[in-house]
Description:
Blueprint: E1 6-10, H1 22-33, E2 42-46, H2 47-53, E3 57-59, H3 67-76, H4 80-88, E4 90-97, E5 100-105, E6 110-112, E7 127-129, H5 135-150, E8 155-164, E9 167-178, E10 184-185, E11 201-202, H6 204-216, E12 225-229
Amino acid sequence: MARILRIIGLETIPDIKPGDDIADLIVKSCIQEGVNIDDGDIIVVAQKIVSKAEKRILDINSLKPSDKAVKLSEFTGKDAKFIEAVLMESKEVVKAVPGHLITITRHGITCANAGIDRSNVSGLENIITLLPVDPDASAENIRRGIEKLTGRKVAVVISDTYGRPLRNGQINVAIGLSGINPFKDYRGIRDLTGYTLHVKNIALADEIASAAELVMGQAQEKIPVAIVKGLEVRIENNHTAKELNMDKEKWLFK
C-alpha cells in the first residue's frame, strides 16, 4: 500500500487579535471547512499568530536605544530601536556584520534578529512581533485546548522561518512543540545493506514544519495553520523544541 502524507491548510482562520484562543479558532475553522481532526494529527501553527494572541507585539518607537544598540546600529546599518528590541530578546550576540545581526534568543535559538519580524503584522516599520515567551508552553496550551474540544490526541508544532548555516534561502523550523518527539532516531538500526547506522537522528519536527510551509506560505496565502495527516507518529509527552537547539560547545563553525 502506498504511503500517503496529507497536509491541509486552514483558510478560514481570522486575523488574530490579542487574547484570542488559537485552539478554539482552529477547531471552528476545521468545522467550517469540513476537515476532521483525528488522533495522531499534527497541527502546525505559525509563530506569528501565536505571538499576536499572546500580546507579543511591540512598537519600537517606545524604546530608547542603549549605547550597545547604537554601536551595533552604526556597524550593521539597522535601526537602533530595532536592535534594542533584539537585545531585549537575546542572551548573546553571536555575529554582527553590515546588514546582519545573529543572536541566541532567551529560548536558546540561534537566529537572525532574535526571531523578531515585521512581516504579516501591520505593514508599519515600527510594529514588530516578538517570539512567544515560551513556545513549548504555547504549543502545549493549544494542544490541550484542541484535545478538550475534540477528544482527539494530537501533537502541535509552532513553526517559524529561519536561515541555515552555509545554505541560501530559508526554511520553516519548529520553535515550539507538544505531544511529539522532535527526533526520529535511526541510530543502532540496520539499513537495507545490513550496515548499522551510527549518526542518523532526523530532526522530525523541523521536517514537519518545513513540509507544512509548502501549504502555509509566507506572503498573501493567509494560511497560518496546517494539519499534517498520515505521518503515523506516536503522540507522547515530555519533549520540547529546546532539544533541537545545539549546544554551543558542539558548533563546528564559530
